[in-house]
Design goal:
homodimer; alpha/beta; Glutaredoxin; five-stranded mixed sheet; Thioredoxin-like_sf (chains A, B); GST N-terminal domain-containing protein (chains A, B); Glutathione_S-Trfase_N (chains A, B)
């Protein structure tokens, strides 16, 4: 295969795997699942907007002061394509590399989009509130300062006050576990461990990224990881084991070289 | 075809079509879309539990005082099957009558279940609050009394106080229209007018039942119907027109004869 490796722009952390953000993991897992060669380029938070403007990556939202740029972005030197947003990346990879595992089977794009949005509110955002305080120290200094400043502006309080340990955080965590059980309930309609039964699709990539986030943030010995693995009679433990083979990160390099 | 007609147990109203409840319409539209011969048996609210127990229909929920029975129920004299719940009915019909339009294509059962639940909260329940007051007078006397009594127990206030005309009801209605736009946003990921693109599935039956409910409750000259038809640049008007052919009701008979 004469195919050149793609580039995945990701945000580094000081954790052993370096990759830590669930939305970034969604794109990485899509590439890993499909076995498409790529290399990671690590970008600190304050450099994301400039990078995106320079390489021509689309913004993913609008803010009062203009377009908002986010990672993941995938750059494909084989086609010249630059794609933002993990779901759009999965769809791009499906279209461009049709001989790899299909992550958005025909006719399911709208369902996958609904799944991404629903789990963002019912699972990811609740994890995010719980983990927020722990994200700050695991980022490199420039990203850490940027993350704290922008998130405190968003929430209007110190990061430590968003979900301090105690009943409110416990409640948020419980609500997140209920979100997992909701997905389990839907999946019971299919006849398999995945959202589409026996067939893996982007929805499962999303769930794998979210489960793995708990492992990254809390560690395998934590109450939180045990909560997740025990939820729905161990169903998420089985799910994680089935797809764990896709969880790996290359060394990568800094900057766009 | 030597197939005997199935029986759909439905709740009557004094509207011209008699059928009026969105969850019942979901089952009726599934039968109509598939072209499966059936006849309607009309059952008043206070008679539902006794009917279900007598014919052996499963309850669909639990209440403090025991199992809770609801319609739709479909009875199939060809197989002896008795099926409660519109989504289960659609799945039963797919399995038993495989030569008709497939409403739950392979691998989509979990997605369809997610769609049913999401639209129940984001669309149907908001319509329900808005229409509540208008449902009472369109039911026959025994059902009307039962409906008012049980719903007032549920909400803890008079039906007229749940969403009285004014800013609160306007806000609920606006939220419902936002729910429709959410579905439109997801569907934009597919490339067609339906949730699965060009392929009709149970998700579309759900949306058709909900849209038709607005027509039944408010009429074609109402602001509400015009709101819905105008939402998302007329997308729901096109959708309704495409599937309107499935909206019909047989005369039916009272009781289980």
């Amino acid at each position: 295969m004469t195919q050149q490796p793609l580039i995945l722009y990701d945000i580094p952390s000081t954790t052993p795997e370096k990759a830590w953000s669930p939305n970034l993991w969604k794109a990485r897992l899509a590439l890993n699942a499909k076995g498409i060669p790529y290399r990671t380029v690590w970008v600190e938070y304050p450099d994301i907007a400039d990078l995106c403007k320079r390489i021509g990556a689309e913004h993913t939202g609008m803010r009062p002061n203009g377009p908002h740029y986010t990672l993941p972005v995938v750059q494909d030197p084989n086609t010249g394509a630059i794609v933002s947003d993990s779901f759009k990346i999965a769809q791009y990879l499906d279209k461009t590399y049709p001989d790899t595992i299909r992550l958005v089977p025909d006719g399911t794009a709208a369902f996958q989009a609904m799944f991404v949005e629903t789990t963002t509110y019912k699972v990811m955002f609740l994890m995010y509130k719980t983990f927020l305080e722990k994200i700050v120290p695991l980022l490199n200094p420039r990203s850490s300062e940027y993350f704290r400043r922008t998130r405190e502006a968003f929430f209007g309080v110190k990061i430590e006050e968003v979900a301090p340990p105690g009943p409110a955080r416990d409640e948020t965590w419980k609500e997140m576990l209920d979100g997992l059980s909701l997905v389990t309930k839907w999946e019971a309609e299919g006849k398999g461990i995945f959202m589409m039964g026996e067939t893996v699709s982007f929805a499962d990539i999303v769930m794998l990224a979210l489960l793995h986030w708990v492992k990254i943030m809390e560690g395998v010995e934590s109450k939180e990881w045990k909560d997740v693995m025990g939820t729905d009679d161990g169903r998420w433990a089985k799910f994680y084991q089935a797809l764990e083979k896709w969880i790996w990160v290359d060394e990568g390099s800094y900057g766009d070289k």
